[in-house]
Design brief:
The protein has six helices and two strands; from the N terminus they run ββαααααα. It is mostly helical and 161 residues long. The protein has a two-stranded antiparallel sheet with strand order 1-2. Helix 2 runs antiparallel to helix 3 and helix 2 runs parallel beside helix 4.
């Protein structure tokens, strides 16, 4: 959640766009060009779908003791890598040829997802390459990686995958 004076925002995607609009030095992360922005928004909204596919597995595991995801849940999650590989076959990053908010957002989600289904670099070489690049960024190492490591421990203790 973000509180900025009299404004309270609770959605991570809205927080990302708000902070970028307010403090960004240029529009590379969130383009002003309406077509480029539509591509970023499309991937940001897709990130929500990915999150809910992960949550369909982790919520029962964390709160109901369901240790094994269904084959359908795993197939639905694996499909995410198929989508991402297709996107990365057209552009260097998820939504464009430069890093955008879509990459930052999806990075956090994929970082969690890989504890359920690891990235298979043979099947998804572009996803693996993108992830390796992104996880070496300072913002990932500082903010995302520590939480991802803790989440990974929790997932491994609650899920048989």
């Amino acid at each position: 959640m973000l509180e900025d004076n009299d404004l309270t925002i609770h959605d991570s995607h809205v927080i990302l766009t708000y902070l970028t609009e307010k403090y960004g030095k240029d529009d590379s992360l969130y383009p002003k060009d309406i077509k480029k922005r539509a591509m970023v928004d499309q991937k940001l909204f897709l990130d929500t779908l990915i999150f809910y596919r992960i949550r369909a597995i982790t919520t029962p595991a964390f709160f109901e003791g369901v240790r094994k995801p269904t084959e359908k849940q795993l197939k639905d999650l694996e499909e995410v890598y198929v989508f991402l590989e297709a996107f990365l076959s057209k552009t260097k990053f998820i939504a464009d040829n430069n890093m955008t908010l879509a990459d930052i957002s999806i990075l956090a989600t994929v970082s969690a997802m890989r504890y359920i289904i690891p990235i298979d670099g043979t099947k998804y070489p572009k996803v693996q390459s993108w992830f390796n690049y992104m996880k070496n960024q300072s913002f990932y190492k500082k903010c995302t990686e520590p939480a991802s490591i803790e989440l990974g421990k929790l997932v491994k203790s609650r899920l048989d995958v």
